[in-house]
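pinned: reference chain
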Amino acid sequence: MLNWSKIDTVLLDMDGTLLDLHFDNHFWLNVIPEQHAIVRNIGLDEAKADIAKRYQAVHGQIQWYCLDYWEQQLNLPIMELKRQTQHLIKVREDVPAFLTALRQAGKELILLTNAHPESVILKFEKTAIDNYLDGVVSTHQYGVSKEHQSLWQQVHADLEFDKQRTLFIDDSLSVLKAAKEFGIGHLLAVANPDSKQPHNEISDYLNITDFSHVHP
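pinned: its structure tokens
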């Protein structure tokens, strides 16, 4: 599996990696279309189709992850709606023991997320996962998402981690591909980001469905 003796820094995704992606999937695929239907006075199917088209247009771009962008586009109080559904925000059950083991092994733990800073704060308030971390980076600080090389170049310049001695963990294959292209030495995919959905079949990357299998 992972050779921990060759890893100093662990870069961690948040949604779908440390936290159950069910909250985000439910919010963006159910709550937002429902609210969009009400505001536009259209049927739910029409609202879902319109929202899906809007998502696709900016998929993988920083706008896709930007709450301000969607608030402006849809005329909806995004953060207020998130707070109304915040009871669904949950840490994966296998994560606290994994992060504790990493800290005990002396690894540097940095959250590297595409999530908007306001969303990050809300999730920290609900889960306290920030207590395990040495650093937090939202890609909104750089104006470009993890899918793009310019983000990796800027983060590397600022954090000065050793690429070859860094592990990056994410549930997005497109993001893992970008990390691999940048030269991150160790990659791990999460194959079960949403507890309410079937596991993903992943062949291109070392992957897990339970962090207990990769403790240092």
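why pinned: The first helix runs from residue 22 to 40. The chain has two domains: 4-20+90-213, 23-87.
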